[in-house]
Amino acid sequence: MTRKGEIVGGLLAPHPPHIVYSENHWRNEPKSECGWEVLRWGYERARKHFLAKKPDVLLVHSPHWQTVIGHHFLGVPEFHGLSVDPIFPNLFRFKYDIKVDVELAEMIAEEGRQDGLITKLMRNPNYRVDYGTIVSCHMINPEWDIPIVGISSNNSPYYFSNEMGQAQMIKLGQATKRAIEKSGRRAILLASNTLSHRHFTTEPEIPEDMSREHVYEHSGYLWDMKVIDLMRTGKTRELISVLPEFMDHAVSEVKAGGLAWMLSALDFPDYPGELFGYWTVIGTGNAVVGWDPQLKAAATTQGAMA
Amino acid sequence: MIQKALIVPGQPHILLAPDRNAGWASLKKSYEALGREIENSGAELLLVYSTQWFSVIGHLFQVDPKPKWTLVDQNWYEFGEIPYEFRVDPAFGELYAKICKDHGMQASTVNYHGFPIDTGTVVALKLLNPNNAIPASIVSCNIYAEREESRALGLAGRAAIEQYGRKTIVVCVTNFSNRYEVADIDPARDRISSSKDDEWNRKLLEMFGEGRLEDVAQVAREFAREANADMGFKAIWWLAALMGENNRYDGKVWDYQPVWGTGSAIVELTPSSKELDFEKEFDEAAVPSFDTAGGTGLETHNVLAESVVLTDKAPKPVGPYPHARRVGELVYTSGIGPRKPGTNEIPEGIEAQTRSCIENIQTILEAAGSSLDKVLDVTVYLTDMKRDFDRFNKVYAEYLGKVQPTRTTVGVDSLPTPISVELKVIASA
Question: Which residues of B touch A66 (CB under 8 A)?
Fold first, then answer.
């Protein structure tokens, strides 16, 4: 009998391409002197902790794969190509080779359909995988030796309301959890979202000039600290209730749904999330926060997972 | 040099799936008819602005002479792929970007293998210019740009076209109402997803039919709010500025159809010399002028340019606005911060910042033919009133205590650069 699958970790895993640019990985063409180290070091600690769990698959929900009709999943076993960020092409031109767990993607899509969601599999091998998916996966697994499930972000909150979008994400999270359990996989979830999301509209001559980096506005910082505090104290049900307000007040990227999806799949953790790092990227607030169900009892203070 | 402007939709349905819906087929037919007209028009450049090419850092300008890829749309991939290879005029893109930079705007050119040309641009160029008969130039749509910046980008485009001297057709890729159906629908039964959106679309199309481009720009904000317009309908602010900010066009609405619930129209606007009794819509006040500091010369704004004050001796503005404007016997400054001219260094502490602000204002007033002792009114912005007010006041008194201008002091959350104080004054000349 197949073992019961489980979610062995969930991470808020933002995707600014700047953090790939600044680490000078061979897959990315542009090179830098430095930059955004605090966030990158946070990712390193998160990587060390969660990869030690030997996951079979990484699931990533990306706001840069935007779909109008329902929730889409990468549906081809392998994607190879060049990702050029349309917004920061000077920083991100990345050669990718991605393995996809299509079987699990199909199972989640089916579970979602049973819950009344519209789900689709993207079967075209020439599709260019979005940079949000790539950056979040790369920062957690730069070896690219674990297959992924890539999930799109549905645009309905932009046409209707934050609450409507979030309700769909909660359903999608529940469907994801059931599918993982049926699949027998050990899965890690990546919510590829920035917190406060107001960017600067100018860039220094040296993009990695850290003397120019700070949060765009004080109110965005206050919101970031508020939601991080709710994460660190395990108050994720309270967090989910304030997310719609956060989306409006801090133009937060969690509007795209990744965080709500992940928290729902984790059954809204009542234990602390571990803050691995927080830093701004061109004014936006980025936090790497992880939940480890195994440490539900033990993880009570910051540093427990390090 | 601007032959005409076109407003077109950018959904792949029109290019890839016209057989599934009569409206989509009709749009394709209209597109192709326009394409034939363009090919025979003698046009030498197509300037394309697409709401589907988002930018964050200012504006981006495509200068790869032959961008080539196979596009698979992120949502509509079931309709098929779109292989493309376009002919781009890099020299125009470079010029357009330079003019923007000369006027204090953030602009970058893009020339990278594999750069993803957006679906809207791809659809428009495939249908309007299928043989690449006319070179194109492509500019991005900044997601944060409000009316002021969109307008400045349009005016910079107008200046670039005038300098470049080529016959140009301007192509604006935008939907009207932009509320997609979020479920699978029978394509044959596609309709505008809200009757209110439909009414708004038709109202604007009536105005376009009368050639009233500037009037549409004036009501764009209201339209965006009421009909969830594509990217706030900012494309029309860009287009109206680029076309000269008037209503003197021959307008033709080629088509109007739903595409998956959105309002998609094809409109042609050709400059004319018709007389107008009056402009019908003035819902919004004028926004600050796009100045001529870059030496590009913009005929439509030379009247305003005479009063513009910009000096190298004060810190460069952080947006498309001048240091001051002189109107009659009064000088109005923009908000002036403490950055040091040339280096942009920000002094430490509220005292030093206040001193630097006032000295910058002194420089600007002198460039405008005024001086500190002629200041009549001051508005002060402090980011930390509780902490800084008293220390600010002491320095302020040193410079302006004896002048006794009226003053308002306001606490604000933040200022555009990491400074603690900014001043704005009105002075006599």
Answer: 74-75
